[in-house]
Design a protein that fits this description.
The structure is a single chain. The chain folds into four domains: 139 residues, Beta Polymerase, domain 2, CATH 3.30.460.10; 84 residues, Hydrophobic Seed Protein; 212 residues, Hypothetical protein af1432 (Orthogonal Bundle), CATH 1.10.3210; 44 residues, no CATH class. The strands form three sheets. It has a six-stranded mixed β-sheet. By secondary structure, it is an alpha+beta fold. It is 56% helix and 8% strand. α8 runs antiparallel to α11, α14 packs across α23 and α21 packs across α25.
C-alpha cells in the first residue's frame, strides 16, 4: 500500500531511478512517510526527505538534473541540500548525508519517533524501518521525542514539537513536554529564518491560539518574542493574572473562533471576506497566520506606554509605538517587507474602529476615511478588531450575542443587554460589522471611482502639477462617498469651489 502511494508522487520516478543506480545508499525518511501513514491529502506530500550514504551534494545535483529543478545548499553544517522543482506540481526534495554509521544510527539522532521512519530505495527493495515505535505513536496520536539530547542538538525541534502537534492533531507525551521546557531557552541559537518558518506554520493552524498558550507554558513564546514578557505583568487589575499577555492570547483565540465560524457569524459577507483574505499576503492560510501574528503583537507596547491618569491606567500612544516594535520584531524574524508593512499597519490602526464606535454615529465620511487610510488591509484590520473586542466576552456570552452582532448599531435598541460592559462591547462589534457590510455593499462603494483625473483637475483649475492636485482629488472622492457629488458635471463644479 505504501509503495503504491509513493509511486503516484511525480518526483518518485526520478528518485527511484537514481536509487537503482546506487542500491543500498538512498532512503526515504521522515515527514513524507509519516504523512502517508496518516493518510493525509496527497497534495500536501510533495515535501520529500532523502538520506544518502554517499555525497548529499552529488545526489542533489543529479536529482536536480533529472527533475529539471534548481539545487542549492539548505544547511551546509548538517550537509543538507535542496532540490526545488517548479511546474504544474511544485515540489522540493531535501537530500541529507547519513548521520552515523548506518541508517539505524541516523534514525536514532532524529527529533521524534513519528519522524524516525525510513524506507530503503529503490521501492520494493526493503521494508519500512521503524526502530523507535513511530507507527504505534501515530496510531495513538502521540508526539514523542527521542531524547533530551536530540532536542538540545537542534533547539528548533522544541518549536517544531508544537507545530507538528498543531498541524497533525497530536498530543505531546508528558516526558516530551518536560524535555521541551528544559531545552526551550536554547531556541535563541537558531537562525531567525528557521524560527519564522516553524512559527508561520503553527500560526496557520486552525487552533493556533491554544498552541500559543502551550508555547508560553513551555517558555518558548517569550524566548522567541522577548518583547512580550513585560506584558505578563502589565495591567493585571484589568486582565487578571497574566496581564496584557493573557488578553493578547485570548485575542488570538477569538480570531481562531471567527475564522472557524465565519459563515455563521457573517453568512452574507463570508464569501467576500474570504476572497479578500485569499487575495493578499500569500493566500488564505498565510494571511490568517499573519493576522494572528498581528494580534499577538497588537498590544506589545502597552507596558512601556502605561501611565496612571485620573485614577485610571491608560496606554496613550501604544498603537504607534507598537507598530514600530512590530516592524523591528518581524524584521528580526526575516518576514518579507510586505508582511512587515501589513502587520505594522494593522497594529497602528487597531484602535480606529473602537474610536468610531465611541462617536456613536458612523458617518459616510468616517467610513470613507477608514477604508481610504487602511486600503487593502481594511478588512484584515476589522477582523483583528473584532477579535480584540470579542476577547472581553466569555465564550457563552459571545455565543448568545452572535445573532445580534450583525444588527445596525444606529438603530438597534440595546436596553435589554446587561451588564453595561457587555452592552458596550456588543455595540463595538456591531460597529465593526457595519463597516464590514459597507465594504462589501455593491450599490454604495466605500471608495467610489474617481470622476476626474489629475489632468482634468489641472485644466479645470488652471493648475500646475503639485500636491494640491492630489488634495483636490482626495476631497472630491470624499464628497462622492458622502453622496454630495454624483456625476462629472457636479465634480467639476465642486472642485472650483475648493479653497486650495
Amino acid at each position: 500500500m505504501l509503495t503504491e502511494l509513493l509511486k503516484r508522487l511525480p518526483p518518485m520516478p526520478a528518485i527511484d531511478g537514481l536509487a537503482r543506480q546506487k542500491p543500498g545508499t538512498l532512503y526515504l525518511v521522515g515527514g513524507l512517510l509519516r504523512d502517508l501513514e496518516l493518510r493525509r491529502d496527497a497534495s500536501t506530500l510533495l515535501d520529500i526527505d532523502v538520506t544518502t550514504a554517499g555525497s548529499a551534494r552529488a545526489c542533489a545535483m543529479e536529482l536536480g538534473r533529472r527533475l529539471h529543478g534548481a539545487w542549492f545548499p539548505l544547511d551546509k553544517e548538517r550537509g543538507v541540500w535542496r532540490v526545488a522543482v517548479k511546474g504544474p506540481v511544485p515540489c522540493q526534495v531535501d537530500v541529507a548525508a547519513l548521520q552515523g554509521k548506518d541508517i539505524l544510527e541516523d534514525l536514532s539522532r532524529r527529533d521524534f519517533t513519528v519522524n524516525s521512519l525510513a524506507l530503503p530505495l529503490p521501492l520494493g527493495s526493503g521494508d519500512l524501518l521503524d526502530p523507535h515505535g513511530g507507527l504505534g505513536d501515530l496510531r495513538k496520536r502521540v508526539l514523542r521525542a527521542l531524547s533530551l539530547e536530540n532536542l538540545k542538538d537542534d533547539p528548533l525541534r522544541t518549536l517544531r514539537a508544537y507545530r507538528l502537534a498543531a498541524r497533525l492533531g497530536l498530543t505531546l507525551a508528558p516526558q516530551t513536554s518536560r524535555w521541551v521546557r528544559q531545552a526551550a531557552p536554547l531556541i535563541t541559537r537558531c537562525a531567525a529564518e528557521r524560527i519564522r518558518t516553524e512559527l508561520v506554520s503553527l500560526l496557520g493552524a486552525p487552533d493556533a491560539g491554544r498552541w500559543l498558550e502551550s508555547l508560553d507554558e513551555a517558555g518558548l513564546l517569550t524566548a522567541i518574542l522577548p518583547e512580550l514578557e513585560p506584558s505578563r505583568r502589565c495591567a493585571k487589575v484589568y486582565y487578571g493574572e497574566g496581564g496584557v499577555l493573557r488578553h493578547t492570547l485570548k485575542v488570538v483565540s477569538r480570531l481562531d473562533f471567527l475564522f472557524a465560524q465565519l459563515r455563521s457569524v457573517y453568512p452574507a459577507l463570508a464569501k467576500g471576506i474570504l476572497e479578500d483574505l485569499s487575495s493578499h499576503c500569500g493566500g488564505l492560510e498565510r494571511h490568517q497566520a499573519l493576522l494572528r501574528m498581528a494580534a499577538l503583537l497588537h498590544d506589545v507596547s502597552k507596558p512601556e506606554c502605561a501611565r496612571h491618569r485620573g485614577g485610571r491606567l491608560r496606554f496613550f500612544g501604544h498603537e504607534s509605538r507598537g507598530a514600530e516594535r512590530t516592524e523591528m520584531i518581524l524584521g528580526r524574524l526575516r518576514y518579507s517587507r510586505d508582511e512587515i508593512r501589513w502587520a505594522s499597519k494593522l497594529v497602528l490602526h487597531h484602535l480606529r474602529p473602537g474610536n468610531l464606535a465611541a462617536s456613536r454615529i458612523v458617518t459616510d465620511k468616517a467610513v470613507f476615511r477608514f477604508f481610504r487610510d487602511l486600503g487593502e488591509s481594511g478588512v484584515s484590520c476589522l477582523l483583528l478588531c473584532w477579535a480584540d473586542h470579542a476577547s472581553y466576552l466569555p465564550g457563552r456570552t459571545l455565543g448568545r450575542l452572535l445573532p445580534l452582532v450583525r444588527e445596525d448599531p444606529h438603530t438597534f435598541d440595546p436596553a435589554g443587554i446587561r451588564p453595561a460592559d457587555t452592552r458596550k462591547t456588543l455595540y463595538y462589534l456591531q460597529t465593526i460589522s457595519y463597516l464590514l457590510a459597507r465594504r462589501f455593499q455593491e450599490d454604495k462603494p466605500v471608495l467610489p471611482e474617481r470622476l476626474l483625473d489629475g489632468n482634468e483637475v489641472m485644466r479645470a483649475r488652471g493648475m500646475k502639477p503639485g500636491p494640491g492636485v492630489g488634495e483636490i482629488l482626495r476631497r472630491l472622492q470624499e464628497a462622492q462617498a458622502e453622496g454630495r457629488v454624483k456625476d462629472k458635471r457636479q465634480a467639476l463644479m465642486f472642485i472650483k469651489t475648493l479653497d486650495i
